[in-house]
Amino acid sequence: MSRTASGKNGTWRNWGGNVVARPAREVTPASVDELAEAVRRAAEDGLKVKAVGTGHSFTSIAATDGVLIRPQLLTGIRSIDRDNMTVTVEAGTPLKRLNLALAREGLSLTNMGDIMEQTVSGATSTGTHGTGRDSASIAAQIKGLELVTADGSVLVCSEKENPEVFAAARIGLGALGVVTALTFAVEPVFLLTAREEPMALDKVLAEFDELWAENEHFEFYWFPHTGSTTTKRNNRSAGPAQPVSPIAGWIEDEFLSNGVFQAAQWVGRAVPATVPAIARISSRALSARTYTDIPYKVFTSPRRVRFVEMEYAVPREAVTETLRELKAMVDRSGLRISFPVEVRTAPADDITLSTASGRDSAYIAVHMVKGTAYQGYFTAAERIFTAHQGRPHWGKVHTRDAEYFAGVYPRFEEFTALRDRLDPGRLFQNDYLRRVLGA
Fold it and tell me: How far apart are alpha carbons 409 and 249 in whole angstroms?
């Protein structure tokens, strides 16, 4: 069960390449009992514990010099309850495998993010989301969860059983224990029609409220140094299915969105002065298209160009003003930004530390290609986001601390009090949690 850390010299690295950890040991439990035993043994040995999924967080939320728990043997569907329309899955199950398995059963999640490489527990613990007028994050679709706490006991939570833990642990940041299973609400598989088309940024901002209200799922990408966006509207459809053809899909999703885009990033890094011209070409490269398919084939797309990302949730009514400020900052800064800015929405939810907790939200995500100096851009963007009471994504780059979060999350102390109860000795502590939740 135990082994040394993988990677060079016993190190672990995240997907974005900006976080490195050197755990004392790695554990790959094959059962909940083995995981609980690993937690108890770590406590006896005076070592901290962190579980890690696929490393798609850009923060050091999963980094530890203690025991790193790998959940890759805790995968697969435990049960499907068609009467209550729920599915229970092991925590280490990748979203990709869950989506495929559900589709085979004629089922689907209601909403999801735009990639599906993460584990279900990693994605939900950090608040991963897609875009939706009425449907919220992946964590908001959780109906129950199983958690190994600091004393090695297994806690089962739902709205009826340990409801105060359930309210917080759906987005628990790894601070309350190690999630071992999740029960999601599902529904019969349905079709979505996606309509992708270019639109001027000024038009998107002027009509944002209507675009949001008229579509079940609306999002757009703005290309800095241009006045151009690519918009995407996903709405339920009676069919028939009209998927993207394999050739067209390869050209749009692989060649243009990944291959040519990667080449453009290389050129931009080598000769920053070319970035505005590349941005203008990129904003025109993807043409309008409409297609109809099952949800995960519409919501998600491959992301092969590695990057570092910051994303903030602002009150939905503040999104257009925030974006105008962001554009003005980029235009006057001399920065060269080769990655588009992604904008999505979510309705208010009731999860204690959800970025949409208690308020309708819009998400603004800024990116830089892996290996470039992102700090200047992100610092300037963060200054704008925080002026609008922004809440950073827990798994993406930010500089906020517990004092800040106490001001933007009305229920922040509810979470920290629960943490005091479940993990008084801070077995699941690391530097990141010390910063964002306090010591």
Answer: 41
